[in-house]
Design a protein that fits this description.
With 64 residues, this protein is mainly α. 55% of the residues lie in helices and 0% in strands. It has 3 helices and no strands.
């Protein structure tokens, strides 16, 4: 029974921290657009990054 005097306030602090973190994230705009990030992986990039192009050609940057 005495463990409840420790665990109950700890649980309330953790739950309160989670609520505060959620409210902060919601106010800062983290949940404004939920659809675009899920579809972004389906879009192709126009050109690969510069570092990936050099490795794909089999050339290193030192050979010039």
């Amino acid at each position: 029974m005495s463990v409840l005097f420790i665990m109950l306030p700890v649980a309330l602090l953790i739950a309160g921290g989670a609520v505060i973190a959620f409210v902060r994230a919601a106010r800062s705009g983290q949940y404004d657009d939920l659809d675009t990030p899920a579809c972004r992986m389906l879009l192709d990039d126009d050109a690969p990054p510069q570092a990936a192009r050099g490795q794909a050609d089999g050339r290193s940057r030192r050979q010039g």
